Structures
1.
Amino acid sequence: MKISRSTLTAVLSLVLCSAVATADDARRSLADKHAPAGIMGDHLHEQGEWMVEYRYMNMYMEDNRIGESRLSDQEAIGPPGPPPGIVVDGIRTNAGAAPTQMTMEMHMMHLMYGASDDVTLYTMVMLPSLTMDHIRGDMAGPMRGTDFTTHNSGFGDTAFGALIRLHSNDCHDLIFNLGCSVPTGDIYRETSIPSGGAVSQPLPYPMRLGSGTFNARPGLTYKRYRDWWSGGIQFQTDLPIGKNYRGYSVSNEFRLNSWTSVLLKDYWAVSLRGEHLWRTSYDGADPATPDTMIATNVESFRGGYWYNIGIGTQLNLKGYYLNAEIVPTIAQDLDGLQLETDFSVIASISKAW
């Protein structure tokens, strides 16, 4: 007996989606309709539908690390006496200071619009607030070992793009993210705090508000829905195009996420997410940031690998969607000398109409 291709396709679709008892639209309206809070670009809107979202993130970093090994604050600035600083990967650095901890807050306003049932347009405005604590090194003279704090805040880079549905049925979605960002964040500000007010110097790379370049941000998301749970996989990138006016480009970034969400009620879900994050070193250098002063000025010390776990919950109540995660970093292997990441907190509230 000969079986047609269309019959095989129908049978395969029935087998794969056999556990989905509800209709397509009804299933996608439950609490797990969005991915966990740390994932973006995972869903579309119907033609003519708008969504506005406020998203907040706080990342906390403490202690220095070389590769997988942690350093004390005193080890990070090197032993006292000449020559000053510490040698890492053949580079003498931290003669001026070493970072000891950093808090990165991010306020984000996200707007989405369904241009058609298969294409959703979006834009996001970001407002970072960066605070870094330091310990002074040998070049501070009698102030060696004392602390100081720097801060920077303002507009970050602006993201926009289109989410394009490549495939969809009752229990599967495949979405392409044709995204990018534009350099609206300031990448050069000076501070006189490290020298006690006598001499100004530019803030180091992690304290800058943007990349200074146009960035391509393509991504691909696959989602699967079942009766009482859903899951997905997403690969997302952030790729600077060329170098900025200071003569460098930031890291290429690659994120691979997978998650599972479980419905406790139609309006309430919990989720577990795993994230692999890779970053390359910077390309080029800002001539105003000498390597010897602090490791955060060393372009080859910006890359590495991080593995994060996201533990989250989602609520869909009276037309408002609340999404939150706590994200501890459980493994990291850093290039050169950097602050290690401890955890992040991410939360959002959105409304569609």
2.
Amino acid sequence: MKQYIDFFNSYRKEIDRGCAPLLNSYREAALDMFASTVLSSPRKRGSHDDPCAWDSRLHGNDVDFGFYLSRASINVNPYRVFRCDVPNLNSHKHFVVNGHFVGNKTQNDLPATVFSDSLNAFARQYPSLFTKYYNQIASAKEDGLSAFNTAFVQDGYVLYVPENVVIDRTVQLTNISAGNNNSLINRRMLFILERGAKAKILVCDHAYDECPITANTQVVEIYAGENAGFDFCELEESSPNTIRLTNCFVRQDEASEVRINSITLNNGTTRNNYTVDLAGKHAGTHLYGMAVADNRQKIDNYTLINHLAPNCKCRELFKYILDGEAEGVFNGRIIVAENARKTEAYQSNRNLLGSRSCRMFSNPQLEIYADDVKCSHGMTTGQLDEQALFYICSRGVRKEEAVLLLKFAFTDDVISEIRIDGMCNRLKMLVEKRFKGELVTCRDCGRINE
């Protein structure tokens, strides 16, 4: 990782160019943290329980990644080409291309007090809010990936919803990776919901055609104020050439509710780290994940939910459907602090293996330091139920269709937890096509509904 530090020192002016001065002011401290956490600290390379051992994902294929220091884009208008239409969604659409927000004033029909725009614009227009929220959770965790992202990121997306404002329509953000060379892209998302605010966002990850090997580092910070409600649904449909490393940090105040749905349908190598702090009493978290992988795809989810106040609830469910030589990893950890009485915490991981060559590593964990709590955790890994398969086939259904039905049923309780209008049916269609081996690209999405 020393080459990135040398790169930073050599190209600092190019990194800063075009960015808000306030955004640039965080870089040096972040680089120092990156050096101390990644270069100086011992780590278990390749360990499935080490959220900081991420550098091996970048260099496992000996790929030389370049940086997008200029605002590299694509030769088309994403608002016209990348339709990603979801029936009945009627969303507010936004795009980020290679980490840079692509504005379209005709799409900005949100309430006047809501900010939904680029990270640089937020830093310039709302410097006090930027200073209050940007990089506050991420830097507190002293994480190498987040520090790296903070040092090099040049833009991103911000959704700020003021007190008691409710966004009725879903906000849809599409992240697009594109280019002609192997590249390292740094993305940032910041979601701020003040007291009583409500919003839902759908984030889609896509690769533009079959682009070269692309590594995406992504840091997401979510702040939910008192009695705020936020639904964050993320769908990854990239390419086998994509490496995606994400840190998602959530901080919740009293009586807030955050629901996260993480769906991976097509990827190369993915690592998602979720850290949730339930800091106010009666806060609730719902964390649901699903991954469909085959060939040599890898999907790794690491979750940490900290119950820091009494009367909080969390429910966590992750499901994997693996085939070919795919590899899945789930590390889930729930910590109930000493004063977090009357906590309700439930964690479950269920995995379906379709071949002898695929691998699943699962490690659900509970740490309880308080009395008067209701907590459980569990894991199952296996194959399709042969008796159920035989029963369906005995009713005249072909075996291939019976297998598809059982796989589809396996995903239902994760998909049904998505509360974005039209997204459940849309996702069921995408999952069915995925099981049939029909991969859908982002530019196909509009044609599917025609």
3.
Amino acid sequence: MSRLPIVSGRAAAKAFQRAGWALVRWRGSHMILTKAGEEATLSIPDHHELGRGLLRALVRDAGMTVEEFNGLLPS
């Protein structure tokens, strides 16, 4: 199993957007992303670093694997 890197909230949101998720609103310090056909809504905090547990939960809620998410991050 691959390890999740430490990334910012904005970098994570960009990776999810590459996977088809759309930023629908930015409320306070949280970015809200949705995807057509998906029941889940992703709420990503705009922090400099996201904890690995939170990031893993977001990846799971998005229906992705860690490897798929890592492939969407810039090198």
